[in-house]
Amino acid sequence: MEKALHSRDVLLGVCYYPEHWPETMWEDDFRRMKELGLEYVRMAEFGWALMEPEEGVFDFSLFDRAFALAHRHGLNIIIGTPTATPPAWLTHRYPETLNAQANGISYEHGSRRHYTYNSPKFRELSARIVQRMAEHFAEHPGIVGWQLDNEFNCEVFEFYSAADHTAFREWLKAKYGSLAALNEAWGTVFWSQTYTDWEQVHLTRNVPSDSPNPHLKLDEKRFFSDSVISYAQMQADIVRAAAPRHWVTTNGLFGHLDTHKLTNDMLDFISYDSYPMFGRMFPDGGENPLLDRRFSMSLSNVRSISPNFCIMEQQSGPGGWVNRIEQPSPKPGQLRLWTYQSIAHGADLVVYFRWRTATFGTEMYWHGLHNWDNRPNRRTREVERIAEELRRAGQAIAGSRYEAEVAILRDYDNEWDGEFDKWHGGYEWTSTLSWFKRLQRRHIPNDMLFVNEQTTLDQLNRYQTLIYPHPTIIREETAKLLEAYVQGGGTLIIGCRSGYKDETGRCRMTPMPGPLAPLCGVTVEDFTREEPDGSSPSFTLSSQAFDTFATFTSNGFAETLAVTSPDAIVLGRYDNSSYMFGEPALVENSSGEGRTIYFGGVFSDPLVDQLIDRLGITSPASDLLELPECIELTVRSHDKPIFEGQDSGLRIHFLLNYSGQSASIKVRCGATDLLTGKRYVKGAAELDPYAALALVFDE
Ligand code: GAL
């Protein structure tokens, strides 16, 4: 079954913490939520100490009263299991439930997410609170769904308690069967690391130079991910058995967690927490960073799990903890823009974080829709407007799917291996960002596609072009799948450092790019990292194939290529900036109906632009619209008519202006904005700063 949110309307909600406010305020809060146009409220995900004030003593009365009131006001309730915040009595009595750092120092009570998934005691106590909650709330008429825990692997995503070391051994026994197989996979003959007893095997500990065995590092992350998944499965099983009417989700995408597997194994759909101001705080580098627009990339990752999903936390004010994450206020219009950014990428339910800013605690500067003074303000007015627009447009948008003909491929093995391995890790981000950025700015919608053992040819064949920037670890089967995709007519683009590692992270003794070499029609003959001063060999493009005499940088890593296929042509050669002078840097090979482009470097914005031109990839809306770069285009469409009288499925063109300036566009055919009802006639139009439109073009 497809793991997607199935909604007939696009709806809004808000996170609410009744435990933070005098009970006398609740009724007024729920009433005003409804008045504002909100339909969902998420509660309880941090309430363990209230629900189980003493070990084995349960008291759901506060949430009973809050849920009853919310339900009376017609709100749908999303209930969170509270396991992200174990009570003080728990970790005090059972310190073995606490997570620890690699150096053995334990985390302590006082913040959140200080527990470890592998503590048997923590599992037992988690199972009990979830069981009690699920039984207690299963028949509640207001509850529609469950959020498991809160943001698995946020705050901390490495686990080194005693329980984790023990569980790791069991995990390895199941994976390798014998110590001999483990020693072989991890290459422990190197530096006499050979294990002769399972008790000698540990997760990373305090080792000299901070340089543990790299193959262990990779397995460690797979183990962390499996630990979350088995812990979440335990919760999901309990909730589903007790409350089969309710949907089950969890929120966020965090490190060392295969969220695709998590979702496929146990959830109805994934939810995401979108805080685009982080994109402004940590700009993505280069001259023209994407800033808050970079969250469109995160939303594309979310969409690769669930084509329609929920935003469980949508930023609704300035962000900040007392001592960190100081974020400015969203500008007027930006909340609306970010809400439609989520919707444009497939969200059909958007829940704001949070109703009102806390007056105490770590997050008393993480602003909600209301400030402490609880008065209506420009942010609440903006949400009121969005709710009104969605009343008009929501049903036409809900359930429609994001359209893309280009996908950027990713996988967890390379992401996790690349965190530790400096010889390929950073390139992934640089190249992915360049592709995403240039496709974004040229109005070419694109998907992220995560490759794993279950990936099928049908999934690849949905796209005309695939970019797999640096698949260092690649299975033979994946290489065969890519070959079938190209043979069938697809275009595949690959960058340097590809194909040379197997699944254990050991290097192959065949010419690079390993199993991808025949398909790409090249072998790597020589290579170098960038020089200590940051310079890399540069190259020029073939004047027969490109309309430029510019030089391009290999951008951090350079490989010289030997052409091995009679059908290959050299598209670029190194210039006299280095000893690689004259050698091929960029090669195109045709096989079957399709082609590959292999680049012996790390992609950069100018090179990506050239490749987009060479491949003739254009915006699907180029016949309908002329847009400046500051505007994002996404297309969501229905494959069938949704309203009576329609001949075909509706296609909705979302236009999002990330700029604080108004932007000029040209419309080539009459259209109506579903959100405002405004008509656009053929010709020029001016979009407001931070504008968001959902255009339907005249037939
Ligand atoms: C999220 C988290 C929320 C809140 C918010 C703002 O990551 O799920 O509980 O902490 O960030 O900091």
UniProtKB/TrEMBL annotation:
<dbReference type="Pfam" id="PF08533">
    <property type="entry name" value="Glyco_hydro_42C"/>
</dbReference>
<dbReference type="GO" id="GO:0004565">
    <property type="term" value="F:beta-galactosidase activity"/>
</dbReference>
<keyword id="KW-0378">Hydrolase</keyword>
<dbReference type="InterPro" id="IPR029062">
    <property type="entry name" value="Class_I_gatase-like"/>
</dbReference>
<dbReference type="InterPro" id="IPR017853">
    <property type="entry name" value="GH"/>
</dbReference>
<feature type="active site" description="Nucleophile">
    <location>
        <position position="313"/>
    </location>
</feature>
<feature type="binding site">
    <location>
        <position position="321"/>
    </location>
    <ligand>
        <name>substrate</name>
    </ligand>
</feature>
<keyword id="KW-0326">Glycosidase</keyword>
<dbReference type="InterPro" id="IPR003476">
    <property type="entry name" value="Glyco_hydro_42"/>
</dbReference>
<dbReference type="InterPro" id="IPR013738">
    <property type="entry name" value="Beta_galactosidase_Trimer"/>
</dbReference>
<feature type="domain" description="Glycoside hydrolase family 42 N-terminal">
    <location>
        <begin position="15"/>
        <end position="392"/>
    </location>
</feature>
<feature type="domain" description="Beta-galactosidase trimerisation">
    <location>
        <begin position="404"/>
        <end position="615"/>
    </location>
</feature>
<dbReference type="Pfam" id="PF02449">
    <property type="entry name" value="Glyco_hydro_42"/>
</dbReference>
<keyword id="KW-0862">Zinc</keyword>
<feature type="binding site">
    <location>
        <position position="150"/>
    </location>
    <ligand>
        <name>substrate</name>
    </ligand>
</feature>
<feature type="domain" description="Beta-galactosidase C-terminal">
    <location>
        <begin position="654"/>
        <end position="691"/>
    </location>
</feature>
<dbReference type="InterPro" id="IPR013529">
    <property type="entry name" value="Glyco_hydro_42_N"/>
</dbReference>
<dbReference type="InterPro" id="IPR013739">
    <property type="entry name" value="Beta_galactosidase_C"/>
</dbReference>
<dbReference type="Pfam" id="PF08532">
    <property type="entry name" value="Glyco_hydro_42M"/>
</dbReference>
<dbReference type="InterPro" id="IPR013780">
    <property type="entry name" value="Glyco_hydro_b"/>
</dbReference>
<dbReference type="GO" id="GO:0046872">
    <property type="term" value="F:metal ion binding"/>
</dbReference>
<dbReference type="GO" id="GO:0006012">
    <property type="term" value="P:galactose metabolic process"/>
</dbReference>
<feature type="binding site">
    <location>
        <position position="112"/>
    </location>
    <ligand>
        <name>substrate</name>
    </ligand>
</feature>
<dbReference type="GO" id="GO:0009341">
    <property type="term" value="C:beta-galactosidase complex"/>
</dbReference>
<keyword id="KW-0479">Metal-binding</keyword>
<feature type="active site" description="Proton donor">
    <location>
        <position position="151"/>
    </location>
</feature>
<comment type="similarity">
    <text>Belongs to the glycosyl hydrolase 42 family.</text>
</comment>
<protein>
    <recommendedName>
        <fullName>Beta-galactosidase</fullName>
        <ecNumber>3.2.1.23</ecNumber>
    </recommendedName>
</protein>
